[in-house]
Write a structure and sequence with these properties.
- This protein has about 700 residues and is of the alpha+beta class.
- The strands form ten sheets. Strands 14-13-10-11-12-15-25-23-22 form a nine-stranded antiparallel sheet. An eight-stranded antiparallel barrel has the order 27-28-29-30-31-32-33-34. Strands 3-2-1-4-5 form a five-stranded parallel sheet.
- The chain has six domains: about 100 residues, 3-Layer(aba) Sandwich (Rossmann fold), CATH 3.40.50.20; about 70 residues, Dna Ligase, domain 1; about 130 residues, ATP-grasp fold, B domain (D-amino Acid Aminotransferase, Chain A, domain 1); about 120 residues, D-amino Acid Aminotransferase, Chain A, domain 1, CATH 3.30.470; about 130 residues, Glycoprotein, Type 4 Pilin, CATH 3.30.700.30; about 70 residues, RNA polymerase II/Efflux pump adaptor protein, barrel-sandwich hybrid domain (OB fold (Dihydrolipoamide Acetyltransferase, E2P), Beta Barrel), CATH 2.40.50.
- The longest helix is centred in the C-terminal third of the chain and has 25 residues.
């Protein structure tokens, strides 16, 4: 009997917020489908609320009182007549009971079937199913772990290092790496608590940690008619605390043979659970195995991934559109042979966190926000896809965001500000576009990781493709202090700073209204850039920096924050870069190419007086335990009068649902405790003091 022709929905509700809500609305508009947004108190003025055709308020700011309540989503569907729900990612996107509730009300779910969500949502059960489907699995313990002692016995049997994971975890939460029995004893209970607090499930499983691990994931797309495809792979190895930071497609490590083997195993797993819609199978791959055959199943995410744009960029397939069509009953219009790889795409996640302070969360108001390309528009396309993007040379730049100037990056939700996606014919060109675009991101009011992302894009190890999940810990073991810069580039910056000072003083002298004309402005300057000093002589269209000729131009004018500059040393290659310029007293702060540079610029004749270059010594805070981020003090590990040793846990602070253990930096005696467990702490609050 012939199947009735599928009918697309006329109106869908997006049960999410932020950039993914904007992303779904953009595709729905292109398809002629009306959209409904739901929003909490914190999101009342958010861009996605304004973009949607209708919007329904669903409660207070905490997600547990708004976005995570299925009844409120269903009520909004009934109120607006929405025929289907797109869950985005996070929140209710992988909750089987939510899908069952929708089905009971006759509302379609734009995602996979209930049984697939239930089977893959439990990390323990999913590993059993993967093994039965013929998928490689990591050696480990699959079952209930009774307590810490049981966890220690299991870890000893598997062999260190091991990874402890919350069974219902995701997004990097509820995970601890243990290199010894002591690590298991210290971290097991924290993993349980994080699992319970974030996901309502405190079950934990333990598995072998793979050496030189690379995180590779396969994009799956299936319909309700039994057709399942793999849309190549994404490399997601650059992570911090198990949270992805950089993603790219394809992977510089994966060969065509590996891609086929991985893809076919992932399709087999998807078929075993009757999968349809978009989904991702995450694999851990041993970079220590040159054959590429040592890859293992980690988990399956039964939803759209944050990093889906890089797959769209190299395949030309709009994954959100395909999810909607599949949910409406349509067959896939392509076959496996139609899936190709066109060029290279890289995505960087711009987070509200301060890399200069150990990547601590930095929530607050965006007093200034300007991404490197214009705002969301259904008319802006790149390669025919509904995306916000512009062409740059032979490549393109795309920004997916859901924030606005004057808005707040709230403590209630994920700290992501935006996703920056570039596409180019080659990997190096895609990375170069990232650097250029990151230079042109303007964010003020809170800490952000733009400098850090630019540093990664420039890092020789990233450019070579020698990646592992330990990349950040290995390359920045002492923290991040800004991207490395060449001596030639620092000379260019010194010339820019001297030129800006000349421009500023020239303007102020003209305004001063001198009867005999403006006072002359010096052309010879001393620029102190960090710990280096450069003598700069300004000329017409060039400068001499310590005797080296620098040619270039900076379009900065007094009052400007962002500027474009070019420069080159002698006959070298011209460098083009964007820079953030800030004046603070008699100093300049110039941020560009992944680093913030403090520059003191003085006329050379004055700078020779060494006393003018003295700087105040910073205060000694080594005897205080300072709260590095806004959060809650969940546990004090010490008491007044107690002697502590370097590395000993002093306090645990929870921020954005993740526990952060603060440790002693030196030996000492606790003299005073200034905070109590359960107390909310501001950044830089003094938790305790040492004698």
């Amino acid at each position: 009997m012939p199947q009735p022709e599928a009918r697309l929905f006329s109106k869908i509700l997006i049960a999410n917020r932020g950039e993914i809500a904007c992303r779904v609305i953009t595709t729905a508009r292109k398809m002629g489908i009306k959209t409904v947004a739901v929003y909490s108190d914190a999101d009342a003025r958010a861009p996605f609320v304004k973009m949607a055709d209708e919007a329904v308020h669903i409660g207070p700011s905490p997600a547990a009182e708004s976005y995570l309540i299925p009844e409120k989503i269903i009520a909004a569907c009934k109120q607006t007549g929405a025929e289907a729900v797109h869950p985005g990612y996070g929140f209710l996107s992988e909750r089987a009971s939510f899908v069952e509730a929708l089905e009971a009300e006759g509302i379609a779910f734009i995602g996979p079937p209930v049984n697939a969500i239930a089977a893959m949502g439990d990390k323990i059960e999913s590993k059993k199913l993967a093994k039965e489907a013929g998928v490689n699995v990591v050696p480990g313990f699959v079952g209930e772990i009774e307590d810490t002692e049981h966890a220690v016995r299991i870890a000893n049997q598997i062999g260190y290092p091991v990874m402890m994971k919350a069974s219902a975890g995701g997004g990097g939460k509820g995970m601890r790496l243990a290199y010894s029995e002591a690590d298991v004893r210290e971290g097991f209970e924290s993993v349980k608590r994080e699992g319970l607090n974030s996901f309502g499930d405190d079950r934990v499983f333990i598995e072998k940690f793979i050496l030189n691990p690379r995180h590779i994931e396969i994009q799956i797309l299936g319909d309700k008619h039994g057709n399942i495809l793999y849309l190549n792979e994404r490399e997601c190895s650059i992570q911090r605390r198990h949270q992805k930071v950089v993603e790219e497609a394809p992977s510089p490590f994966v060969t065509p043979k590996m891609r086929k083997a991985m893809g076919e195993q992932c399709v087999a797993l998807s078929r075993a659970v009757g999968y349809h819609s978009a989904g991702t199978v995450e694999l851990i791959v041993s970079g220590a195995d040159p054959t590429g055959e040592s890859f293992y199943f980690l988990e399956m995410n039964t939803r759209l991934q944050v990093e889906h744009p890089v797959t769209e960029a190299i395949t030309g397939i709009d994954l959100v559109e395909q999810m909607i069509r599949v949910a409406a009953g349509e067959k896939l219009s392509m076959t496996q042979d139609d899936i190709g790889i066109h060029g290279w795409s890289i995505e960087n996640r711009v987070y509200a966190e301060d890399p200069y302070r150990g990547f601590l969360p930095s929530t607050g108001r965006l007093t200034h926000y300007a991404p490197p390309i214009p705002g969301w528009s259904e008319d802006e396309t790149v390669a025919g896809l509904p995306r916000r993007g512009v062409a740059r040379g032979s490549g393109s730049v795309r920004v997916d965001d859901g924030v606005y100037e004057g808005g707040e990056v709230s403590m209630f939700y994920d700290p992501m500000i935006a996703k920056l996606i570039t596409w180019a014919p080659t990997r190096d060109e895609a990375a170069d576009l990232q650097i250029e675009a990151l230079d042109n991101f303007r964010i003020k009011g809170l800490g952000h990781n733009v400098d850090f992302l630019s540093a990664i894009m420039q890092h020789p190890r990233f450019r070579s493709g020698e990646l592992t999940t330990g990349f950040i810990a290995e390359e920045y073991p002492e923290g991040f202090e800004g991207a490395a810069t060449s001596e030639d580039f620092r000379r260019i910056l010194a010339a820019v700073c001297a030129g800006n000072e000349y421009t500023l003083q020239s303007r102020s002298r003209r305004i001063s209204g001198q009867l005999d004309g403006p006072l002359p402005v010096a052309s010879e300057w001393l620029v102190k850039l960090g710990d280096e000093r450069f003598e700069v002589v300004l000329g017409d269209g060039h400068a001499m920096v310590d005797g080296v000729r620098v040619e270039g131009h900076c379009d900065w004018q007094p009052g400007m924050v962002h500027a474009e500059a070019t420069g080159k040393i002698g006959d070298g290659e011209e460098v083009r870069f964007g820079l953030i310029v800030e004046r603070n007293g008699n100093q300049w702060k110039v941020t560009t190419r992944g680093a913030a540079h403090s520059a003191l610029v003085l006329p050379l004749r004055l700078a020779r007086h060494e006393s003018l270059m003295l700087e105040k010594e910073p205060p000694d805070l080594s005897r205080m335990l300072i709260c590095p981020m806004p959060g809650m003090l969940v546990k004090l590990h010490v008491a007044a009068g107690e002697t502590v040793q370097p590395g000993q846990p002093l306090a645990t602070v929870e921020a954005m649902k993740m526990e952060n253990i603060l440790r002693a930096e030196k030996e000492g005696v606790i003299a005073k405790i200034n905070a109590a467990e359960g107390e909310s702490l501001a950044v830089d609050a003094v938790i305790l003091e040492l004698e």
